[in-house]
Amino acid sequence: MPRLYLADFKLGSVLGVGTVGTIFDGHVRTDTEVSPSATGLAGQDLAIKILHPNVSSDELIQARFRREMLILERLEHPNIIGYFGGGSEDNQLFYVMQRVDGGTIKDLIVQSGSLSWPAVVDVARQVCSALQCAHNHGVIHRDLKPGNLFLTRDAEVKLGDFGIARDQHSADLTHQGLTVGTHAYMAPEQITGDEVISGKIDLYALGCCMFEMLSGQKVFLGENFAQLFEQHLRTPPRRISSLVPDVPRELDEIINRCLEKRPEDRPFNARAIQGVMLTIGEKYGLSQPPVASSPHAVAAKDREELAPEPHDVAAESVTGIGREQLAEQIRIRQQGDINPTVPAWKLALVAGLLILVLGIAALLAQR
């Protein structure tokens, strides 16, 4: 029989099941006295991650789970899932985090096919802010993908699932030479199991995510992990502009730079990519209100070098139209009123057939 309570919390429905843990809807208990730390969470919608009982005796998995808790405790940022504490009861490891109800970027891609390029610009801006915070604290995510980009209903992006993250301030829990990550988003140096890696593997994964958000396709389409690895290691990626012709040139170029095989050929850091997103926002009129009216606006040509701090509230308005479009896609998905974009050639075909039918009907009517 599944347990209903864990420490100070009442467990609800299952929100998600992963390789080593299950995430439950949760609330602070009201049937008994709780700790002062839990009292502060009373009335909030929470998410509680519990280590699977069948792996809870594995010391390495336990260590990774505790490492994830320590990482989340350090990374306090608006674009990273909020952490409220954790512990163990009856040898059951768990931690409590912020619950977000807008689904994931993966959900939007699956149901809508793709995202508009202004929405992708805003998502990338937010993800870069989260990544720069993590990298500043010596944390490399190593599993950045659409399914780990969570969304609030008002289109705030929350980076989550730091289960295989590397903390550069402590011992690595991954055996040297071992490949970890999700095949479709892994940088070449991650695939080869290089001992020395940097945050640039997350930038490569971000390039893969942007490509997929825009096109609805993964960068590489190998039939198995061996083919995918070979493509990541040696095959030049397709330009996103070959699939989505209306993307801005700057977006096409930064995605291609993120997907460079050598880490040194990728952008310097996440903040540099964020700067490009802000440049695009200004140049293509995504601001709300227009940033050009601000006396503190930075010239576009200097944006990459002088990008804002990892989280700059003023920067949010620069890609505001993209965020509005993202929020609309979230709203439509949650209402179940999904109308995937119909390719233009299909619309033209239907229109042509309709004209043909009407023409035949008119000829028959004249007889």
UniProtKB/TrEMBL annotation:
CDD domains: STKc_PknB_like (cd14014). The gene is pknH. Residues 9-278 form the Protein kinase domain. It holds the Pfam family Pkinase. It comes from the Bacteria. SUPFAM superfamilies: Protein kinase-like (PK-like). The chain crosses the membrane at residues 344-365. Its EC number is 2.7.11.1. Keywords: ATP-binding, Kinase, Membrane, Nucleotide-binding, Transferase, Transmembrane, Transmembrane helix. It is an enzyme of class 2 (transferase). The keyword Kinase applies. InterPro entries: Kinase-like_dom_sf (IPR011009), Prot_kinase_dom (IPR000719), Ser/Thr_kinase_AS (IPR008271). One of its GO terms (molecular function) is ATP binding. This is Serine/threonine-protein kinase PknH.
